[in-house]
Design a protein that fits this description.
With 296 residues, this protein is α/β, with parallel strands linked by helices. It contains 13 helices and 5 strands. The longest helix is centred in the last third of the chain and has 22 residues. The chain starts with 7 loop residues before the first helix and ends with a helix.
Amino acid sequence: MSTTPLPVWLQTVQDAFERRIENFRVPHAILLESAPGWGVFELADSMATTLLGVDRSFDLSRHFDFQLVELEGRSSLISINQIRDAIDFLSTTAREGDRKLVLVKQADKLSIPASQALLKVLEEPPENKHLILATTNSAVLMPTIRSRCQKFVVQNGTVEQVNEFLETHFGSSNDLDDFLKDYGGAPYAALAALDEKRVNLTAALSRFARSQNTLTELAGDLKKEEADDVLLRWQYITLRLARNSALVQPVATFYDELSDVRRQFREVPGLDRERQLLRLLIKWRELLIKHQRLHR
């Protein structure tokens, strides 16, 4: 568990949750949401320790009354067996206190059978048994699941709040600044990218625009990264270009194409990643050439 203090945009939600506990109004089921990279899973961990009455530095995996449900291995969905195990866990008596808690991370990845099984426990909640569903995309959850949860929404922090949080606890670097641009200012996404030594897309596309690396070199580097993550970052970079360009329609068209390719990668197994990246890079260079000519 983290010992880094929560940034102000997460602490605001944490404070609201603690007031509920103090007033004996703890929801049986909580739906916790933020935009990607804004700390929903860090906040979920913090809320879990608060609910179980332990310090934030405590390793929840060692708590007898806590169970984590998340994607396993290379699986793309949370299975019905994982949810059945969680329901069985909640059906037993608490061992270390009055409450038991199941935390489902990436709840938007629940399979349909898993969602249906989860709905049953939400319809007849056992006393002093709690569920936290943490997600960056609650819209894909079954409406009946959403309606049975108390929702807490994390608002994005301001640029000033993000900079203060990062400089205070992690220092600053040019790489981190570029990753913030990659992820639309989302600090936890930028920190993860820096830690995992991902390709810095903002810097890489800038070098490519200046012909400092070749088309095939960049496509080869990007092919090693997770496709959806690369395309999401590219969308953020495209939005930044849109704010600084008179090429409104061409930029919007390219953004839509990035969205379409993201969808294809999710829905079509075995799609030729390098070919798609080469095609997008060619269109990106053409777009930048038009932008530069227009703004000379």
